[in-house]
Design brief:
Largest sheet: none
CATH superfamily of the largest domain: Hypothetical protein, domain 2
CATH class of the largest domain: Mainly Alpha
CATH architecture of the largest domain: Orthogonal Bundle
Number of helices: 12
Distance between the termini: 18 Å
Structural class: mainly alpha
Number of strands: 0
CATH topology of the largest domain: Endonuclease III, domain 1
Bound molecules: iron/sulfur cluster
Helix content: 55-70%
Length: 212
């Protein structure tokens, strides 16, 4: 099997830069990371569009849970997600809703803070850390595990173990982290699907095709 940086280069060659995360502001990115839990990106976009120009931490802090749930209704699980958005905003208020102040916080400490926020697990925390706060944490999801396992990379089951293993095998570069995660998602949706299209995959000659 090719090493991870070589796999990254192949995916980048196939698909080009993905320029994630698709958001107008760092706070919109954070909101998107919560809304995307258990739903499609198309539904997240509908929910974000419902905010219009009002999407800000101040606006979310000023709304009650029911009003917020109505706005984010298209994203599904809207009552739970309204609570999560309120909790995220409460956490962000520690930094006066100032992305520069949040980015200046120690990486480990701010990750611990995010993981303590209601409704934020590893994947959501690391997405926010990487794409909004520019902290070097690789985002692992079910696509990552499936893709790497099929290739023949001995991918551990636990989130933290897999994240650390990937990080140990690629340069500590936030731009590469962001692109690589996005490219894995793209490849998992285009070719390395649940039922993979190996015959048209550029990685076929390298892949062990451990498909279960
Ligand atoms: S060859 Fe098949 S299993 Fe391997 S990465 Fe490509 S699509 Fe996935």
């Amino acid at each position: 099997m090719k090493k991870l940086p070589a796999i990254y280069k192949t995916l980048l060659h196939i698909y080009g830069p993905q320029n994630w995360w698709p958001a107008q502001t760092p706070f919109e990115m954070m909101v998107g990371a919560i809304l995307t839990q258990n739903t499609t990106w198309a539904n997240v976009e509908k929910a974000i569009n419902n905010f219009g120009k009002r999407l800000s931490p101040e606006f979310i802090a000023s709304k009650d849970n029911d009003e917020l749930a109505q706005i984010i209704l298209p994203s599904g699980y809207y009552n739970q997600k309204a609570l999560k958005l309120k909790a995220l905003t409460q956490w962000y208020s520690k930094y006066d809703y100032d992305i520069k102040r949040a980015r200046a916080q120690d990486s480990y400490l701010i990750r611990q803070e995010l993981l303590a926020v209601k409704g934020i697990g590893y994947e959501t925390a690391d997405s926010i850390l990487l794409y909004a706060l520019n902290k070097p944490y690789f985002v692992v999801d079910t696509y990552t595990k499936r893709f790497l396992s099929r290739l023949g990379f001995n991918a551990p089951n636990k989130y933290e173990d897999l994240r650390l293993l990937i990080e140990a095998n690629i340069p500590a570069d936030i731009n590469m982290y962001g692109e690589f995660h996005a490219l894995i998602v793209r490849h998992a949706k285009c070719q390395c699907k649940k039922k993979p299209s190996c015959g048209v995959c550029s990685l076929e000659s390298e892949c062990k095709k451990l498909i279960i």
